[in-house]
Design goal:
Number of strands: 6
CATH class: Alpha Beta
Distance between the termini: 41 Å
Shape: globular
Strand order of the largest sheet: 2-1-3-4-5-6
Number of domains: 1
Radius of gyration: 17 Å
Number of helices: 6
CATH superfamily: Alpha/Beta hydrolase fold, catalytic domain
CATH architecture: 3-Layer(aba) Sandwich
Strand content: 5-15%
Length: 204
C-alpha cells in the first residue's frame, strides 16, 4: 500500500512532519512517496501549476486503488488539482487534507482555489476524503477546513493544539492513515448505484 505525502508552499520532504511520518509509515510496511514539488513562490510569476502537475506525474505516476494521499496546507489543493487533471484507471483508497485553505489572498495562487474545481467530479476521484484541521490553526483558520469538508462531503477530524501542523511530529496523522488502511472497503464509488439497463437486451 502506497502513501503519497505532498508538502505545502515553500516546504519540502525534509520539512515539518514529513521525515517523521515517512519513517513511521515505512516501519509499518507502507511504501511512501514524498514528491519534491516546485511549490515556492518568489514572485507572481513563480507559481506554475501545470509544471507542478507534471512533476507529480513523474514522481507519483498512475494512482492505484490502495493509495492514500495526504497533502499539507496548499499541498492539499495540489492533490485536488492532480486528481482532476490526470488520467485515472483506479480510484485511490483515501485523500487526507491537512490544514487545507479554502481561499488564499495571493493572486498567483488563485488556480488552486477549490471554487475553481468541480467538487461533484472530485468526490468520485477517491473512495474517501478526510480533512484534518486544528482549532488553534492561526495560519489557516479552522473554518476553512469545515467549509472544505462540507464541499467534498469529507470526514472532519478535529484536533485542539496542532496549529498548522508544522512541528516534527503530529501523531494524529499516523493514526488517521493506519485507521484508513485497516478498514476494508467493500465497493468502489458508483458500485452501489442501480443499473437502469439490466432489462435491455444486448444485440449480438
Amino acid at each position: 500500500m502506497r502513501v503519497i505525502l505532498v508538502h505545502g508552499l515553500n516546504a519540502s520532504p525534509e520539512k515539518h512532519f514529513h521525515p517523521w511520518l515517512s519513517a513511521a509509515l515505512r516501519d509499518r510496511g507502507f511504501e511512501v512517496i514524498v514528491p519534491e514539488l516546485p511549490l515556492s513562490v518568489q514572485d507572481e510569476e513563480g507559481f506554475n501549476l501545470p509544471n507542478i502537475i507534471e512533476v507529480m506525474k513523474d514522481q507519483v505516476g498512475y494512482l492505484k486503488s490502495d493509495d492514500i494521499l495526504l497533502g499539507h496546507s496548499l499541498g492539499a489543493l495540489v492533490i485536488l488539482q492532480y486528481l482532476e487533471a490526470v488520467e485515472m484507471t483506479e480510484t485511490p483508497r483515501a485523500v487526507i487534507l491537512v490544514g487545507p485553505p479554502w481561499k488564499v489572498s495571493r493572486p498567483e495562487l488563485r488556480r488552486l482555489f477549490v471554487e475553481d474545481l468541480d467538487a461533484e467530479v472530485l468526490m468520485w476521484k477517491a473512495r474517501e476524503y478526510v480533512i484534518v484541521h486544528s482549532k488553534d490553526d492561526t495560519i489557516v483558520p479552522f473554518e476553512h477546513g469545515e467549509k472544505l469538508a462540507l464541499q467534498l462531503k469529507a470526514r472532519l477530524v478535529t484536533t485542539q493544539s496542532d496549529g498548522h501542523f508544522m512541528e516534527e511530529k503530529h501523531p494524529v496523522l499516523l493514526e488517521v492513515i493506519e485507521e484508513i488502511a485497516k478498514r476494508p472497503f467493500e465497493f468502489a464509488p458508483g458500485v452501489s448505484l442501480g443499473d437502469d439497463y439490466t432489462d435491455i437486451q444486448t444485440l449480438l
